[in-house]
Write a structure and sequence with these properties.
The structure is a single chain. The protein is mainly alpha-helical. The chain has one domain: Hypothetical protein af1432 (Orthogonal Bundle). Helices cover 61% and strands 5% of the residues. It is built from ten helices and four strands. It has a two-stranded antiparallel sheet with strand order 1-2. Strands 3-4 form a two-stranded antiparallel sheet. A hairpin with a 6-residue loop joins β3 and β4. α2 crosses α7 and α4 packs across α5. It starts with a helix and ends with a helix.
Length: 198
Amino acid sequence: MGTHAIAFLTEIGADTTAHPSGTLLAHLRGTHDCLVRWGCAPYLCAAGLYHSVYSTDAFRTVSVPLQDRTRVRERIGTEAEALVHLYGTMVRRSLYETLARGAPHRVVDRTTGADVPLRDVQQLADLMTLDVANRLEQLPRVPMSLWRRELDRRRYEQAAPLLPRAALLDVRRAYPRRGWIAIAADGARRRVRRWLAG
């Protein structure tokens, strides 16, 4: 990725914006690096570097207002910016729902509530691959129950035909299959800790 793309992220304060990965810039670079390692297309890697600058369903900090989309296009290109915009404005759950439901694929715009048809299966694959990179980059630093991990594992296994092989291998390393006894025991421990803390 060009130095001007990184410089812009510093200019908008991503290097000082708090994030579970330390700073937003650290998370953006880590997501980009996952996509590069998986051999993804340059536009998808560029989208990874900027994927949450408009905010997302889960990360509500706006680093670049939507009216400034041109500034992002100038740094990463039209195709990458369109993917960043779609990823940032969609309801994340609607991505998983359209994956499970099948064609015609569409997501829900969280700013308007409107359905947004996806262009084709490649766009669905790009969104899922970006979502996997976003999640795996944060996973070592974000506490997550075994039940939540199992939900993620199932979603990403369902997306297996759409994902690069290297991404799927990383998913399977990060989300080993857990038995229901282990999941239930983890849930019970978490409930006891909450009860003791409360």
